[in-house]
């Protein structure tokens, strides 16, 4: 497990999970973690930065700070169990990398594509 990687879930997957839960649980007080599957190792900030620059501005220079945290309270690695949700039969269609690529593509289309 790379301590510099974090898992990401695309918002469309979150919505699908919420709809799935609303249709499949009887007790509205149950608590579920919604996130990428447990075997998703995540993606690094460097990988995300490279994907963004490749899509938006391939000549952009990337500068990194010296800390392993992005802000006060940030943690280098976090993973919670999504086994309870998976046991009901739901899992995301996208892994972290695909979720990030989809978000970058959507942002590009919204703000940078010439329509």
What are its keywords?
single chain, 115 residues, mainly alpha, two-stranded antiparallel ribbon, 4 helices, globular
Beta-strand segment tally = 2
Low-confidence stretches: none
Strand order of the largest sheet: 1-2
Write the element-wise H/E pattern from the N-terminal end onward. Answer: EHEHHH
Query: What percent of residues are in strands?
Result: under 5%
Largest sheet: 2 strands, antiparallel
Radius of gyration: 17 Å
Percentage of residues assigned to helices: 40-55%
* Overall average pLDDT: 90
- Overall geometry: globular
Number of helices: 4
The N- and C-terminal alpha carbons lie at a distance of: 42 Å
Q: SS-based structural class?
A: mainly alpha
3D architecture notes:
- The structure is a single chain.
- The protein is mostly helical.
- Helices cover 41% and strands 3% of the residues.
- The protein contains 4 helices and 2 strands, in the order E-H-E-H-H-H.
- Helix 2 packs parallel to helix 4.
- It is globular.
Short description:
By secondary structure, this protein is mainly α. Helix content is 41%, strand content 3%. Helix 2 (45-56) packs parallel to helix 4 (96-111).
List the helices and strands and how they pair.
Layout (H helix, E strand, L loop, with lengths): L4 E2 L4 H14 L18 E2 H12 L26 H5 L8 H16 L4
Antiparallel strand pairs: 1-2
Helix pairs in contact: 2-4
């Amino acid at each position: 497990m790379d301590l510099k990687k974090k898992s990401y879930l695309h918002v469309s997957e979150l919505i699908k999970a919420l709809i799935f839960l609303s249709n499949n649980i009887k007790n509205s007080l149950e608590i579920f973690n919604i996130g990428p599957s447990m075997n998703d190792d995540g993606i690094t900030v460097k990988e995300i930065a490279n994907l963004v620059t490749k899509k938006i501005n391939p000549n952009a220079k990337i500068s990194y700070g010296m800390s392993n945290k992005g802000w006060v309270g940030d943690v280098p690695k976090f993973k919670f169990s999504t086994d309870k949700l998976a046991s009901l039969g739901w899992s995301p269609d996208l892994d972290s990398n695909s979720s990030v690529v989809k978000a970058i593509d959507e942002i590009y289309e919204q703000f940078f594509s010439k329509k």
